[in-house]
Design goal:
Elements lengths: L2 E5 L2 E3 L4 E3 L1 E5 L2 E6 L2 H4 L4 E4 L4 E4 L1 E3 L7 E2 L2 E2 L6 H8 L2 E8 L6 H13 L5 E7 L5 H6 L10 E5 L10 H13 L3 E5 L3 H13 L6 H5 L3 H17 L5 E3 L5 H12 L4 E5 L1 H5 L22 H13 L4 E2 L14 E3 L2 E3 L24 H10 L6 H15 L17 E11 L2 H4 L12 E11 L2 E5 L2 E2 L16
Parallel strand pairs: 1-6, 2-7, 8-11, 11-12, 12-13, 13-14, 14-15, 15-16, 16-17
Antiparallel strand pairs: 1-4, 2-3, 4-5, 7-20, 9-10, 18-19, 20-21, 21-22, 22-23
Helix pairs in contact: 5-8, 8-9, 9-11
The structure holds zinc ion.
């Protein structure tokens, strides 16, 4: 790979919007300026006229090849990262289940599998779901493997949940070593009780997924986790997939008291409501936490606008809507059990929604084009803030000399009707199916290589790299 010049485009970062050329030497940006062609007459020139140039998207919350009861999520580390690339995302962070007793063994099992498959750059968060003295002492060893983040759950009693005592002690540990804890915040006890009551009353329809996981169960848990952060000596905490408007208010309150808590939401919580679960295809919309009400959409948008919520991730975790049918992916047939597993019982519907490819396109349409976000805010929440919070900045998340040449050439006039086929995700539906889109990636570069060129896919299995992330100093 030699020298490339991207010419004629408008560079958009989280802080600025300006016209300039980008000089790429190999995998990194070497300069930003003008008239590079005179200096490098042999360089490959990429025309970016009428394009915005964003730093490649960073999606800090995806699930690839995730086992669930009776099935496995339908995107693996190749198909999911291909979908990411077509949507303008060049770095994803997946989660390693805490399957082995040892955290490091759990991490390395997933890493070995992912390394050979990913087509964009990636990292892993380590789930921490087996609290005991041994696993607690092992948390700092993750740093030697470039993983400064663990994830805990306040819900899923008896499976994934860590009790408050374990969360407190894990947070003391992450605080001491400059690490960050991600927390899934819902009240496990309330949810288990409501699910038992719904079943006893014969309520098995998809809407009961939302009714048994109420908004204040999330709000209460978010407040509790903020409190545990303070009680652990102000341990940095990142609340994943915020879904209730009140959660954003709680987070803002904790931040105002100096508690180091960040918030993430996802496009689905900004755009849709739980009315979707009452439609004939309600199972498509079953994921956790659930969709809520219009007031929650508004509260979350406000949270982003005010800077209370820093990132918009996806929680990408696709399942086939009808897994009894076969689809084609890259010319090969594919079928796998999906949402139909729960056709008679909402608790048996695999939880999750495709979205890694939709994220930027959805946020452009519903955020930038609707006047809710500036382009700079769009870049901040889709790329820059996640790179900073998760120890990848300035290598990822911005456009400046020395950064990886991960770039999205965005065509604001590209108009088409979205479909699951456009998403490149290996599943049979998209939350944007049939939606008219204006504005989408035209070219996507990963470390200087054009991996998406219009409809053409130049990316490859194993072409992505594991990004060694640093603790905060
Ligand atoms: Zn998730």
């Amino acid at each position: 790979m030699g020298i490339k010049i991207i010419k004629g485009g408008t560079i958009v970062t989280a802080a600025e919007t300006f016209q300039a050329e980008i000089l790429i030497d190999g995998e990194t940006i070497s300069a930003i300026g003008n008239d590079f062609e005179a200096l490098y007459p042999d360089a490959e020139v990429i025309d970016a006229a009428e394009r915005f140039i964003f730093p490649g998207g960073v999606d800090p919350h995806v699930h690839l090849d995730l086992p669930m009861p009776g099935t496995v999520s339908s995107d693996d580390h190749y198909t999911g990262t291909k979908a990411a690339a077509f949507g303008g995302t060049t770095t994803v962070i997946d989660f390693a289940n805490h399957d082995a007793p040892s955290l490091v063994d759990s991490l390395l099992t997933i890493k070995r599998k992912a390394d050979a498959m990913v087509s964009v750059d990636y990292s892993l968060h380590q789930n921490y779901t087996r609290y005991n003295e041994e696993t607690l002492a092992e948390i700092p060893a993750l740093l030697e493997h470039g993983v400064p983040t663990i994830k805990m759950f306040t819900a899923y009693n008896g499976r994934l949940r860590t009790e408050d005592e374990g969360i407190l002690r894990a947070l003391r540990m992450t605080k001491r070593y400059g690490m960050t804890a991600l927390v899934h915040a819902e009240n496990g006890d309330v949810i288990e009780r409501l699910i038992a009551e719904a079943k006893a009353a014969g309520n098995f329809a998809p809407i009961y997924h939302a009714r048994t996981r109420p908004d204040w169960s999330a709000t209460e848990a978010t407040f509790r986790v903020c409190s545990l952060s303070e009680l652990a000596g102000n341990a940095p905490v990142y609340i994943v997939h915020m879904n209730a408007g009140e959660e954003s208010e709680v987070l803002k309150y904790a931040q105002s008291k100096g508690v180091p808590v960040w918030g993430e939401t996802c496009p689905q919580y900004l755009i849709f409501t739980d009315a979707a679960l009452e439609k004939a295809d309600g199972a498509k919309w079953v994921f956790s936490p659930p969709l809520r009400k219009a007031k929650d959409n508004e509260g979350l948008w406000r949270g982003i606008q005010e800077g209370t919520i820093q990132t918009v991730a996806t929680d990408h975790c696709p399942f086939m809507f009808d897994g009894t049918k076969t689809i084609e992916y890259e010319g090969r047939p594919f079928s796998r059990p999906g949402k139909e597993l729960g056709k008679d019982d909402f608790t048996k519907i695999p939880n999750g929604l495709p979205g890694v490819g939709e994220r930027l396109i959805a946020l452009w349409k519903y955020g930038v084009q609707s006047g809710k976000l500036t382009m700079n805010q769009f870049v901040a929440v889709t790329s820059t803030n996640a790179a900073k919070i998760f120890g990848m900045a300035p290598r990822k998340g911005t456009i400046r000399p020395g950064s990886d040449a991960d770039l999205v050439l965005w065509d604001p006039k590209k108009t088409f009707r979205y479909s699951v086929a456009a998403s490149k995700s290996r599943t049979d539906y998209s939350y944007l199916d049939g939606v008219e889109i204006t504005g989408a990636p035209d070219k996507v570069l990963l470390r200087g290589e054009v991996i998406v060129d219009g409809e053409r896919w130049n990316g490859r299995r194993g072409g992505g790299k594991f990004i060694f992330r640093k603790p905060r100093v």
